[in-house]
Design brief:
heterodimer; A: mainly beta; seven-stranded mixed sheet; four-stranded antiparallel sheet; globular; B: mainly beta
Chain lengths: 112, 115
């Protein structure tokens, strides 16, 4: 079985631009969560979606948004990029909330 | 405030020596507890988890962790470290009452293994 897949793996954007990151969960998993990991820190929770509904939001500005599609894949959008948005963005999927989560390899976003 | 603390930012250990990584949490109730490992440029791999029951939990790659309620700790151990264990280790908690799967991670401990 395929694990959690994220695309792209690496991305370079300019300040002020917009970016979309994609995540495909493990087959059968209905919950997708997004995390931001700045270099040298632990991952920080951004969003969780379950059955296409937002179930949780971390302490991130409104520039960050996400959605989940009927096939349970998800997109994370970040508008008006700042240098501080440079990070590894991780997607995690789980069958249900509060159970074992499987993480993808992440998307490395660099904002210049 | 709720928090997860990993007191050691960096640990250097010789190959074959034992390893212990510390994790303390601050929550009103016992959360679900996890240890993840991250190799450079990679995602997170689950080593082990504690939900309830036996306080000594066995995981993959020869790791184990012990939950101590009185100390609010969930320390990770390995009796004999291999060079491939060099990585960053994260302790994480899930508080299920309102979190719907929201993990809170510690800042991580970087493990360096010397020959």
């Amino acid at each position: 079985d395929a694990g959690v897949t994220q695309s792209p793996t690496h991305l370079i954007k300019t300040r002020g631009q917009q970016v979309t990151l994609r995540c495909s969960p493990i087959s059968g998993h209905k919950s997708v969560s997004w995390y931001q990991q700045v270099l040298g820190q632990g991952p920080q929770f951004i969003f969780q979606y379950y059955e296409k509904e937002e179930r949780g939001r971390g302490n991130f500005p409104d520039r960050f948004s996400a959605r989940q599609f009927p096939n349970y894949s998800s997109e994370l959008n970040v508008n008006a990029l700042l240098l501080g948005d440079s990070a590894l963005y991780l997607c995690a999927s789980s069958f249900s909330s509060s159970t074992e989560a499987f993480f993808g390899q992440g998307t490395r976003l660099t904002v210049v | 405030a709720q928090s997860v603390t990993q007191p050691d930012i960096h640990i250097t250990v010789s190959e074959g020596a034992s390893l212990e990584l510390r994790c303390n949490y601050s929550y009103g109730a016992t959360p679900y507890l996890f240890w993840y490992v991250q190799s450079p440029g990679q995602g997170l791999q689950l080593l082990l988890k504690y939900f309830s029951g036996d306080t000594l939990v066995q995981g993959i790659k020869g790791f184990e962790a012990e939950f101590k309620r009185s100390q609010s700790s969930f320390n990770l151990r390995k009796p004999s470290v291999h060079w491939s264990d060099a990585a960053e280790y994260f302790c994480a908690v899930v508080v299920t009452t309102d979190s719907w799967g929201k993990f809170q991670f510690g800042a991580g401990t970087q493990v360096v293994v010397t020959p």
